[in-house]
Amino acid sequence: MEEGFNDDKANEQELKGVLPGDEVKKPVVGMVFCSEEQVRSYYNNYARSQGFGVIKVSAKNGSDGKSRKFSLACAQYGKQKSIARDTFHPRPLIKTNCKAKINVTAKDDGKFIIARVYLDHNHALSPTKVRHFRCNKALDPHVKRLELNDLAGIKLNKNFHSAVVEAGGYENLPFGEKECRNYIAKARRLRLGIGSPS
Predict the structure, then answer these.
(1) Could you report the per-residue pLDDT of 146-172, keeping only the tens digit for each?
(2) What pTM did the predictor assign?
(3) Secondary structure in 3-state letters for the chain
């Protein structure tokens, strides 16, 4: 029997607002999802609860251009060569050749099913630091407020701290001050007509 996320109301509750340490069901072979976005959201929430980041490592599209297969993996999946030129101060390597990932296949009815699951990591997991992973950083709900405060002449550090207070602490905010500064700098350049929107 296939288990999955076909009930939309249950989906919204399962896929919304997961904090580090929250319990999210482990991925198992046979789980069915209505869309690729739903698979990504579920696996990101699972990763957030466990303490690792997520990347998409492979994808295969059909002749119609729609996704047929893809894999989501731990952010430390694969190998990495050091590109440091100074041997006395090497850069730390991010990749540890971690094998944790899920393989997902599209079904004929347009839904997606988890075909393979690898849950073992070869590195320590850190649920308390999960908000610092690239896949978990998002400015979306705070963007308008940051821009309005900047237009009103509020200093950037005050702007950021107002977002921290609204979220109830640094640990509840899905971005850091650096992302806030980068976003405001980009918005200012666009207002001046330098650069193009992405």
Answers:
(1) 888 888 888 888 888 888 888 788 777
(2) 0.61
(3) CCCECCCHHHHHHHHCCCCCCCCCCCCCCCCEECCHHHHHHHHHHHHHHHCCCEEEEEEEECCCCCEEEEEEEECCECCCCCCCCCCCCCCCCCCCCECCEEEEEECCCCCEEEEEEECCCCCCCCHHHHHHCHHHCCCHHHHHHHHHHHHCCCCHHHHHHHHHHHHCCHHHCCCCHHHHHHHHHHHHHHHCCCCCCC
